[in-house]
Every structure is written in structure tokens, then in C-alpha cells.
């Protein structure tokens, strides 16, 4: 008896081939989708435990985030629909203001960084719910300006990184339409030390960035007046800073009151091309200040050979709690330690 066999009609062969093609399509489609998602979510960009991040890439995203946030800040201010409200009171008793500009800038900035580098810790001034996160991603291109100044990758473990975002610095001044003080800022800290700083001025389209042991697009000024310095302080969170300064440096000391920590740090630098920026030799703050307000400026100063410390000269660590209790002393091109000693006798009374 001849063995039984299976014979397919031409129609059956066609159906079988179609089924096979369908299986192959779904397998290929699934693999393609997986690769696209891996690419968009930062495959190899701090997306898993034990992974590393190239700080040049993180700098590129930080610059893009600050500038995207700046677009939102500027658009809301020009629409005059701020939706201003208060988050509570500052320690000085003033309203801690928040606007639609803060929220929309925060959404853009935090979404871009979290989507592009899902493995890093991101601390931001305004809360971002998962439902509010936008589907925006980095195109994985490092700008030529960054590649020219920082030519080699700088890899660090993703778990060592904390990103600090200030989506709108100088909100108080923003509500008063004093927009020259307004900045958006991103800082990257590695093991608590600030290594990347980006400060963007939305209303003049000026962006300063720097990486410690890397490069920068901004530089220190040619000279600073250490004997009779011009000192910049906060106009809305001043505390007793003016009294401390006059007692320390003399009654003829020139004091500039300005909004925003980002603006004050830029006043210490050579910001050629940003004609609306005032200049100062020292930045002093005597009250509590949030770390997202100062981290970017700290990184830029450190990259250029300057310093930002507490009034007692202590290093500020950018992990854990979001505030700095020890006041602030920022300088570049002067003897920072001598300034600390000069201020030492005045700090206890404040």
C-alpha cells in the first residue's frame, strides 16, 4: 500500500504562502517597532541600570530643552495670559508665584530630557504628571559648536547623574514684565558636583553653556575689580544682604539689585552679544535658595575657573534636598577665599 501524502491545490499553496508572509510581516514589524522605540527612548543613553551617558549628548539635550522652554515662556508673556497664582509664601514673606509660562516651559523641558535619557534622575521646580508628559524626543545630533569644543565622548554612569531644571527663573519679575531678568536653566550634576550648566535668556535669544573639563561658549571677563567691587544681589529675596555688604565692603560699595540667579551669574561673565546684561564682580545672597536656581550657574562658573559656595565657603552638593540653607557667594577672577574670610564676621548676625 502506497504511503499517504498531502497534496495542496494551487489555492491551498497560495493560502499557505500568504499565511507565511503574514507571520514574517508581524515578526519584522515587531522588531522594527522595538528598534524605533529603543532609538527614541535613548538606546545606549542611560536607559537602563548600569548604562552610561555621554555628557556631550546630555549637554546637547540640555541646550535644546532650555531653548524649547524659552519659547513657551516668551509666547505666554507676549499673550499676556499668565494665569498667575501663588504656590505659597517665600521665607521672606513674599508670594511664591507661578504662571502658565512656568508650567508650559516645565512640560517641554522635563519631557524632552526624561524621554531622551530615561535612566537619569530629573529634579524640576514644577511637578510633571506622567499624563502631562509630551512625546518629544532628541534627534540624537550633537551640534557642531559642542563637538568642536568637546571632541571626545565623556561617559559617566547614568545612576550618578542628577539633572536640575528651572523652567522659569525670575518668575516675580516675569509677572511685572521685567523680562530681561528671565532665564530658563538646566544643570547636570555627577555625584552631586555640577558639571554642565545651561542658561538661556528667552527674550534676547542668548544662551550660555559650559562643561567642567570640557568647553564652553562663554568666557570670563578680561578684568574684575577686587578692591572696589560691584556686587549684585536679589531684588525680591534680598534679606539683609545690603546691610552685610555695606558693613563688609564699605558704604560706597556699588550694589546692583536684579532678578533671577541666572541673570546674576551672567553678570559676572563676558556676555558679548547680550547688550542688555549688566556687569558685576561678585554675586552675594544671604537667604535660603533653591538648587535649581543656582546649579547651572555653579557649573558654568566652575568650568571657567570661578567658584560658587555658601557664605562660609562650603561646597554646595546637588543631591537630596532641593534647597541651600547657607547663603551664596559667587565669584570669578578674584580671591574667593579672601571674600569668605571678609564676610565671616558678618554671617552670624544674619
UniProtKB/TrEMBL annotation:
Name this polypeptide is given: Inositol monophosphatase 3
InterPro entries: CysQ/Inositol_MonoPase, Inositol_monophosphatase-like, Inositol_monophosphatase_CS
EC number: 3.1.3.25
Entry keyword annotation includes Magnesium: yes
Gene3D superfamilies: 3.40.190.80, Fructose-1,6-Bisphosphatase, subunit A, domain 1
CDD domains linked: IPPase
A molecular-function term among this protein's GO annotations: 3'-nucleotidase activity
Key words, A-Z: Hydrolase, Magnesium, Membrane, Metal-binding, Transmembrane, Transmembrane helix
Gene Ontology cellular-component annotations: Golgi apparatus; membrane
Keyword tRNA-binding among UniProt keywords: no
Catalytic activity: a myo-inositol phosphate + H2O = myo-inositol + phosphate
Source taxon at top rank: Eukaryota
Residues the entry annotates as binding Mg(2+): 125, 166, 168-169, 293
Membrane topology per record: Single-pass membrane protein
Region (Disordered) location: 79-98
Entry cofactors: Mg(2+)
Alphabetical list of Pfam families matching this protein: Inositol_P
Subcellular localization: Membrane
Enzyme class, first EC level, given as a word: hydrolase
Main location: membrane
UniProt record, GO biological process: phosphatidylinositol phosphate biosynthetic process
Family, as annotated: Belongs to the inositol monophosphatase superfamily.
Associated pathway: Polyol metabolism; myo-inositol biosynthesis; myo-inositol from D-glucose 6-phosphate: step 2/2
Amino acid at each position: 500500500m502506497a504511503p499517504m501524502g498531502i497534496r495542496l491545490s494551487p489555492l491551498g499553496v497560495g493560502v499557505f504562502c500568504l499565511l507565511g508572509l503574514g507571520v514574517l510581516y508581524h515578526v519584522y514589524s515587531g522588531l522594527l517597532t522595538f528598534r524605533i522605540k529603543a532609538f527614541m527612548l535613548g538606546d545606549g543613553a542611560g536607559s537602563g541600570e548600569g548604562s552610561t551617558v555621554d555628557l556631550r549628548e546630555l549637554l546637547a539635550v540640555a541646550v535644546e530643552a532650555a531653548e524649547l522652554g524659552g519659547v513657551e515662556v516668551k509666547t505666554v508673556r507676549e499673550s499676556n495670559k499668565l494665569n498667575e497664582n501663588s504656590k505659597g509664601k517665600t521665607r521672606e514673606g513674599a508670594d511664591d508665584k507661578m504662571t502658565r509660562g512656568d508650567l508650559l516651559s516645565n512640560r517641554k523641558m522635563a519631557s524632552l530630557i526624561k524621554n531622551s535619557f530615561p535612566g537619569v534622575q530629573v529634579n524640576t521646580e514644577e511637578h510633571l504628571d506622567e499624563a502631562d508628559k509630551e512625546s518629544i524626543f532628541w534627534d540624537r545630533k550633537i551640534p557642531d559648536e559642542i563637538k568642536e569644543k568637546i571632541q571626545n565622548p565623556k561617559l559617566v554612569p547614568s545612576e550618578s547623574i542628577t539633572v536640575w531644571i528651572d523652567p522659569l527663573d525670575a518668575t516675580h519679575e516675569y509677572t511685572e514684565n521685567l523680562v530681561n531678568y528671565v532665564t530658563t536653566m538646566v544643570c547636570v550634576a555627577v555625584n552631586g558636583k555640577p558639571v554642565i550648566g545651561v542658561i538661556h535668556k528667552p527674550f534676547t535669544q542668548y544662551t550660555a553653556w559650559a562643561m567642567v573639563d570640557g568647553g564652553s561658549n562663554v568666557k570670563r571677563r578680561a578684568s574684575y575689580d577686587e578692591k572696589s567691587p560691584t556686587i549684585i544681589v536679589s531684588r525680591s529675596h534680598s534679606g539683609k544682604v545690603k546691610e552685610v555688604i555695606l558693613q563688609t565692603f564699605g558704604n560706597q560699595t556699588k550694589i546692583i539689585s536684579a532678578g533671577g540667579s541666572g541673570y546674576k551669574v551672567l553678570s559676572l561673565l563676558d556676555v558679548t552679544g547680550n547688550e542688555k546684561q549688566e556687569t558685576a564682580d561678585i554675586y552675594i545672597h544671604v537667604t535660603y535658595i533653591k538648587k535649581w536656581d543656582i546649579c547651572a550657574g555653579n557649573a558654568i562658573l566652575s568650568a571657567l575657573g570661578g567658584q560658587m559656595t555658601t557664605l562660609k565657603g562650603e561646597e554646595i552638593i546637588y543631591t537630596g534636598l532641593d534647597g541651600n540653607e547657607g547663603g551664596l557667594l559667587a565669584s570669578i577672577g578674584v580671591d574667593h577665599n579672601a571674600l569668605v574670610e571678609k564676610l565671616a564676621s558678618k554671617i552670624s548676625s544674619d
